[in-house]
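Notes to self, LacI family DNA-binding transcriptional regulator:
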Amino acid sequence: MKAGFVRGRQRFFCKACEYHFTVDKPAGTPSRKRHQATIADVARQVGVAPSTVSRALNGHSDISPLTRQAILEAAQQLDYQPNLLAQSLKSQATNTIGVLIPDLERPFFATAVSGIQQVATKAGYRVMICQSKESYEAEVSNVQALIASRVDGLLICHSRETENFDHVKDPARRGIPVIHFDRVCNEVNSAKVILDDRLGAYTITEHLIEQGCRRIAILAGPASLLISRQRQAGYLSALRKHGLPIIEELCAHIDFRPASAVAALDAWLALPEPPDAIFAINYTNAFDLILALRERHVRVPEDMAIVGFGDEFLASLIEPGLTTVDLHPFRIGQQAASLFLEQMAQKEDFQPRTCVVTSELVVRQSSLKGRSVAAKAIL
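result:
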């Protein structure tokens, strides 16, 4: 019968002879615990010193071709993988960039990551991606995990909830390159890649005015969000330039959820004089509006024009096609990665700066009220 453990091994008791004992494993019995092969394991199999294995794997010329071949074959048989953490402790670099975005499922952020990866891979860096899912707590946890993994730099787009930035201030103070993109933090002296949100919003609002719209509502985001404030400022600037009144009830701040967008729409439709156009600063909410208007038998664009901010393939597939501002997320990702490489090359001499990526107005049927306009107008 089983009778506990001795030094980690199962102890047995025989009732017939009243004797306690343990049983050795037969030679060659595989361990249940997964073992990651090490340089020592490779050295033991080949019959050489671990230092010889290390030099052979690193391509040193003082190892004979025969020995190197034997070591490479043994490493392959044992599925040996280099210990990246050990290498980083020795070289003080991991050749890894940490990227933190709000939501990988959103095409904007997925495309930005593609731009980052293209530049990083070409320069010999790996990319480690985390997402906050728009949660401040998840963002803090992910930043801590990336720093603990000894990434060489951090490229970050903050969540909608983030108002405290201590979790990025500390790595920046320690000399870890921090690059902000899209949703940035002005409390950290870091390189930044931003959009000209104000100009983009101004241009798309002016486009609606040129179509004859006079009561233009704006579906803005949380007032605490910088991009929401910038896009609202561009909208207001266009109204002022064209002498249109600023009507408080036509401005709604929402959390970007579909239900919030539809609730704002219903409130506007209940007004004695509903808006004749809606500018959604988030393109996904523009989709929500078009679908909701269809259910309410309101024609787009004849009864109400709809425009969004941010362009992706669904904008051209929905009926009617959605007029948007193309943010060029791939360029944003490329620029963010390039700023990181520049900071790594210049070290202490690097001077953080802000790069602005210009957007592009893409006109489709959702905003056209019978007037002739160009299909695209570069800002």
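- The mean pLDDT is 87.
- The first helix runs from residue 39 to 46.
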